[in-house]
């Protein structure tokens, strides 16, 4: 009996968007209009690359960015949930699939001492250049028309499951916890025995209910959460069974 927990990061583990939170480091805590308006749908990673150049140009250093990022609040109940998962690691494999980046997620998880809860983190690779600028790259290339250019979470999940099967690991159930539009693609990949846990009032919940209304519902069960305590209650029932 082993369960796979798949977490999104922004607005799921943390209660904010890490990419927009970093703007607190900018002069006057805002971006110039030209930069703000340069975002094109599906090309968020490129947009963030320009934001990081702007921050670097304005002398924002790594330690200041790190200090700012580690002040992001966790979602209600999330600290309890991650603590619970950490205590029951023999039952749960736990991964993050996120459109944030490796630097931000690493800083936040390590500052709160939660990095050991997660077996793997799949997100856009980021690093500081020799000149001290943060750079970010696409996670992978894919052919999915539903997803942003840099990341198809379904592809990540499928490849992870295939690799685990090669190692002889299969899961009794997959629990997918997320909030955003880009979480719908992996949720549609889940099977009847799996469960999607969309955050209440966010895009993923709305998209799942739209699918149900158009009579093409997702195959998996759906359980909406507003606090991570709701997720913990479900996991406690799961391991009692």
UniProtKB/TrEMBL annotation:
Catalytic residues, chain numbering: 8, 10
Entry cofactors: Mg(2+)
GO molecular function, one term: phosphatase activity
Gene3D superfamilies: HAD superfamily/HAD-like (3.40.50.1000)
Keyword Metal-binding carried by entry: yes
Binding positions for Mg(2+) per the UniProt entry: 8, 10, 179
Residues engaged in binding substrate: 19, 99
Methyltransferase listed as a keyword: no
Pfam families on file: Put_Phosphatase
Family designation: Belongs to the HAD-like hydrolase superfamily. PHOSPHO family.
Protein name, UniProt field: PHOP2 phosphatase
Origin species: Prunella himalayana
Lineage per the UniProt record: Eukaryota, Metazoa, Chordata, Craniata, Vertebrata
């Amino acid at each position: 009996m082993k369960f796979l927990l798949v977490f999104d990061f922004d607005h799921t583990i943390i209660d904010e968007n890490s990419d927009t939170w970093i703007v607190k480091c900018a002069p006057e805590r805002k971006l110039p209009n030209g930069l703000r308006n340069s975002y094109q749908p599906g090309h968020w990673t490129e947009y963030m690359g320009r934001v990081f150049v702007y921050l670097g140009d304005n002398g924002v250093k790594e330690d200041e960015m790190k200090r700012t990022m580690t002040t992001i609040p966790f979602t209600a109940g999330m600290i309890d949930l991650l603590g619970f998962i950490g205590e029951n690691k023999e039952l749960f494999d736990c991964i993050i699939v996120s459109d944030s980046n490796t630097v931000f997620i690493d800083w936040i998880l390590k500052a709160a001492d939660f990095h050991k809860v997660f077996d793997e983190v799949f997100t856009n690779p980021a690093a500081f250049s020799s000149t001290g600028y943060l750079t970010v790259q696409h996670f992978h290339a894919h052919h999915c028309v539903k997803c942003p250019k840099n990341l198809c979470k379904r592809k990540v999940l499928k490849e992870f499951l295939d690799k685990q099967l090669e190692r002889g690991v299969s899961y009794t159930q997959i629990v997918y916890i997320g909030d955003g539009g880009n979480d719908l693609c992996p949720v549609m990949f889940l099977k009847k025995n799996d469960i999607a846990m969309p955050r209440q009032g966010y895009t993923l919940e709305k998209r799942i209910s739209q699918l149900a209304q158009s009579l093409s519902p997702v195959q998996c069960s759906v359980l909406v959460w507003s606090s991570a305590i709701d997720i913990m209650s479900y996991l406690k029932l799961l391991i009692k069974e």
